[in-house]
């Protein structure tokens, strides 16, 4: 098993360069888009965690109790869903067949539980907004050579990172996403 390594914080001019390094994803080729998102999540993970932490802290200063409650709810739902995905056959099969839908269900369940506690705005601005910003950046940022090389090293298993572990727990590995995309394309062509 590879040891856990924290990815370095990428320089600002690499993380957010000029408009020449951003492009709208090709929505007709979901495999390519998925690969771009997963590659960017792995390569810029420390930058993404820093952006999320800053937004989390800003909302946390405005509503500390709501943010603690929101973080606890999302953490419990995430850990519970990963545990259920590993230990319950029906959920494990659903998670393997529908990994993106599984993530959406985890987020909706978190939102529902937060709405019961009265912390919807905290959930939206402190948890969902950073995730949306990360997804938008990962979707629009074009990959570079260093990005592709780092992802291949992690994909082979030579090293593990926090984002890689999170993606593994949610069954969002690039290979599985490619297999799902190939399956969907073959079904729609028939």
TrEMBL record:
Compartment(s) where it occurs, according to its Swiss-Prot or TrEMBL record: Cell membrane; Cytoplasm, Cytoskeleton; Endoplasmic reticulum membrane; Membrane
Main location, first listed in the record: membrane
Annotated family: Belongs to the PRA1 family.
Protein name: PRA1 family protein
TM segment ranges: 41-61, 67-85, 97-114, 120-140
Keywords: Acetylation, Cell membrane, Cytoplasm, Cytoskeleton, Endoplasmic reticulum, Membrane, Transmembrane, Transmembrane helix
Organism: Scleropages formosus (Asian bonytongue)
Gene Ontology process terms (BP): negative regulation of transport
Gene Ontology cellular component list: cytoskeleton; endoplasmic reticulum membrane; plasma membrane
Membrane-topology descriptor: Multi-pass membrane protein
RNA-binding among keywords: no
Record has Acetylation as a keyword: yes
């Amino acid at each position: 098993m590879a040891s856990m390594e924290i990815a370095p914080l990428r320089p600002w001019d690499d993380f957010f360069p000029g408009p020449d390094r951003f492009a709208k994803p090709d929505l007709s080729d979901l495999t390519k888009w998925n690969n771009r998102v997963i590659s960017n999540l792995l390569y810029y993970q420390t930058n993404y965690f820093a952006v999320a932490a800053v937004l989390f802290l800003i909302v946390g200063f405005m509503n500390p109790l709501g943010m603690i409650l929101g973080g606890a709810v999302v953490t419990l739902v995430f850990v519970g869903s990963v545990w259920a995905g590993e230990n319950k056959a029906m959920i494990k099969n659903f998670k393997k067949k529908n990994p993106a839908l599984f993530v959406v269900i985890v987020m909706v369940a978190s939102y529902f539980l937060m709405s019961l506690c009265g912390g919807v705005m905290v959930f939206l601005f402190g948890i969902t907004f950073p995730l949306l910003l990360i997804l938008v950046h990962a979707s629009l940022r074009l990959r570079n050579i260093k990005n592709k090389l780092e992802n291949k090293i992690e994909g082979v298993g030579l090293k593990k990172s926090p984002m890689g572990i999170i993606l593994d727990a949610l069954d969002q590995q690039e290979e599985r996403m490619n297999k799902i995309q190939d399956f969907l394309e073959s079904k729609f062509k028939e």
